Amino acid sequence: MNMVEISGLIKSFGANLVLNGISLDVRQGEMLAMVGPDGAGKTTLIRAICGLLPFDSGSVKVLGHQVPKEMEKVKPHIGYLSQRFSLYGDLTVDENIEFFAEIHGVKDYRSRRDELLDFTRMRPFRRRLAEKLSGGMKQKLALACTLVHTPQIIFLDEPTTGVDPVSRRDFWKILSRLLAEGLTIILTTPYMDEAERCSRVAMLDRGNILALDSPQNIKSRIGGKVVELICQDIKKAASLLSDSLGPLNVQAFGDRLNVMIPDGENLWSDMVKKLKSSGIDCGRWQEISPSLENVFIKLMK
C-alpha cells in the first residue's frame, strides 16, 4: 500500500523553479530519506506533502486523500517535525507534550505521554523546562510531541542537524523502533550515513530527483571500483587523474582522493605510473566500497 503518491509536482518561487515535476511513491512501513544540497527542494517537498505550502501543478495524495483539498482527513494521521520545531522553553517536558496533545485533540493523553517519555528515555527530565534541555533532548522531546497523537506517517526535516554524535545515535535507535512498529517515516538529512540506514533514498538537486532506489542499488550505479588515494600534492594528483579519467571520476575529500576506476586494476596501474612519473608518491592507496556520497557527487557533476 502506498502511503504517499506524488505525480508531476511543480513549485516555483517567482522565477526560481524549486520542484521540477517530482514523482515518487512512499510505501507503508518504509523509511525514505531525501538528500541533497541546500536549495535542492527537500524542505519545499515535505511542506507541500503536508499541505503547508501550495504548489503550482501536479498531484499529491496522502493515505489516498488529495492534498490540500482533503487535508482535514489527512491531518489526524501525520506528524511533522520541522527544522525549527517550536518547543515552549518556559514549559516543562510534560507540559509541552500536554500542549501538543490538546492541539491534536488527544483527550486521554497521560498514558500516551508516559509511554513516549519511556520510549525516548525522557522520564527523568519530565519536570525540566524545555529551555534547559540539551540539543539532543530537545529533539527527542520534539519527536515525542510529534508522536503524541499516534500518526501513521511522520515527516522529519533534518532532525539531527546540530545534535551531538551520541544523541544522534540515540535518536536513530528511536527511529528504528518506530519503523519496527510499522510507522512510515519520510525524512531529509544532510548526512549520507543516515541515508544508508533507510529503505530507499531520493537524491535531489535543483528540484530534480537524480536517483531513487535502495542505498545498495544506488551505490551499484558507480560501476567498476573506487580507489582511495592519499598523497601530498592532492590538487596536482586530482588534475592528472581527471585528465585521464575525466573529472566525474575524481573526487577530493580533505587529504585524500576517491578515484572511480571503470576498467579494472590494469587501468589503475597505469594511473600510478603516471603519477609517479610526475613526482607524486602513490604509496598509500586502497580499494574501498563506493559510498552514497561518491554516487551523489558524480550524479551532481
Explain the layout of strands and helices.
Blueprint (H helix, E strand, L loop, with lengths): L1 E12 L2 E12 L3 E5 L6 H8 L7 E6 L2 E3 L3 H4 L3 E4 L11 H11 L6 H10 L15 H13 L5 E5 L7 H16 L3 E5 L3 H4 L4 E6 L2 E6 L1 H5 L5 E6 L3 H12 L4 E4 L2 E6 L3 H13 L6 E5 L3 H9 L1
Parallel strand pairs: 3-8, 3-9, 6-7, 7-8
Antiparallel strand pairs: 1-2, 1-4, 4-5, 9-10, 11-13, 11-14, 12-13
Helix pairs in contact: 3-5, 5-6
Account of the 3D structure:
With 301 residues, the protein is an alpha/beta fold. The protein folds into two domains: 2-213, Rossmann fold; 224-300, 2-Layer Sandwich (Alpha-Beta Plaits), CATH 3.30.70. The chain is built from eleven helices and 14 strands. A hairpin with a 2-residue loop joins strand 4 and strand 5. The protein starts with a strand and ends with a helix. 37% of the residues are buried. The mean pLDDT is 92.
